[in-house]
Amino acid sequence: MNKLSSHWLLVIGVLVLAFGPLLVLQGREFGATDGNFVAAIEKDHPNYKPWFEPIIKDSGPEVQTFLFASQAGIGAGITGYVLGLYKGRSETRKKDE
Description:
73% helix
């Protein structure tokens, strides 16, 4: 397989991963998993009482999106830092040998 065809396979794979879930859902409601868990717990255990209350009550979708994006950014930053740190250490170790 030549280089050009492998690039096209990669592009097709990315497109399938990006648009596949949209085609599978086809207009069905796509809700947050937190809401699904709360509904399942209330259905199975109607007398359940939460251990604590949320810090931010009744936050709108903008706040939820901001918090999710912040968590993703912080996680990506930490992951990138750790991977770069270990890569640098391994290159230094190889250079010293």
